[in-house]
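A further point concerns the way the authors explain their paired sequence and structure data. The central task, working out the structure tokens from the amino acid sequence alone, is never made concrete. I therefore recommend that a typical entry be quoted early in the introduction. An entry of this sort, consisting of the sequence and the corresponding backbone structure tokens, reads as follows:
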Amino acid sequence: MDTATGTATSATRDRGGLRTLVDAVRGVTRRDLPVAETAESVGEVLRGHLPTVDVLTEDELAGDPERYCQHVLHIEPDGSFSVVALVWLPGQVTPVHDHVSWCVVGVVQGTESETLYRLGERDGGPCLVESGRSENPPRSVCAFAPPGDIHRVRNIGAGTAVSMHVYGADIGELGSSIRRCYDLPVVT
């Protein structure tokens, strides 16, 4: 990893099938499709080219006891997309959040639980309405694009979970794909 740019080095890109994934995603993003269609097309690419845990070092796979870890694996030179690995220890969870761009997620190891929300109104004020739940085992892939991308993700397994995320943004520049976090009452 080139720590100055956050871009994976050529030696790293070959690990775990990352180079093949990056090349295939590049082919989709160059087509200038509508945002939702880009997400779906990148989802198909990730289903066919999901990297293995070999893309991460032993230290990266160890995780952090305080919070889930983000490892930037590739940033496209023009900033059109980034590939990121998230490593989750048991029980680790995101805040309820939405995203700055389209996003595609593939679970490499472990099982992640995802709860989806939509904005609503209760007693004259804003709230979150739970709109779906899923358990995502290894090799499951989901794609989404704003608006309508509010969710919370949790590692529900007994071991470390690893997921690959492809974002339609330069995560090295932004630091995160999260646009905003929500602290609103939840209606189920």
About this structure: The chain has five helices and eleven strands. The CA atoms of residues 10 and 19 lie 8 Å apart. Confidence is low (pLDDT under 50) at residues 1-13.
